[in-house]
Amino acid sequence: MAPTSTGDGTSDRASVQQFLRTCDLDLDQPRDAQIYDMMRHECFAGFQSVRAAVAGTERPSPSGEISEDALRRAISHIFMTASPETRQIYSRGRAQNDDNWIIRWLVMEEIRNEEAPTVTNHVT
């Protein structure tokens, strides 16, 4: 089952660790870290591409405006265009309805990161 997040920084880190364990990835292993980075990149780029197409603009609309249907199209697109290394991991998350909890989790993680307020320190 897919890990969940409560929005609290500590539980978010625990959620990422749970996700990695479930995917059998160990970021202390260089190859696993590389595959995880590839997965994150593919999911972010694939989702941005589909989101921009749905919005009909070059600049994607806010994630709240993306329908479940558009999200499923993004998941399918990401899976179909995945590298052989990442597709091997994604295959573990496929469901009968062409949904994929691994890709969905990564896309939602990117959306959460994108929507998180940026903290800046202003020196006066």
Radius of gyration, in angstroms, nearest whole number: 15 Å
Gross morphology is globular
Mean pLDDT over the full residue set: 79
Described by strand count, sense and barrel closure, the largest sheet is: none
Q: Work out the helicity level.
A: 55-70%
Strand content: under 5%
Residue runs with pLDDT of under 50 for 5 or more positions: 1-10
The number of strands is: 0
Give the termini separation: 48 Å
Treating each run of at least 4 consecutive H or I residues as one helix, how many helices?
Answer: 5
**Can you write the helix and strand succession as a string?**
HHHHH
Structural class per helix/strand content? mainly alpha
Fold and architecture overview:
This protein has helices spanning 9-22, 30-55, 68-81, 84-90, 101-115. The protein has a domain at 28-55 and 66-113. It has 124 residues and is mainly alpha-helical. The protein contains 5 helices and no strands. Residues 1-10 have low confidence and may be disordered. The longest helix has 26 residues, at 30-55.
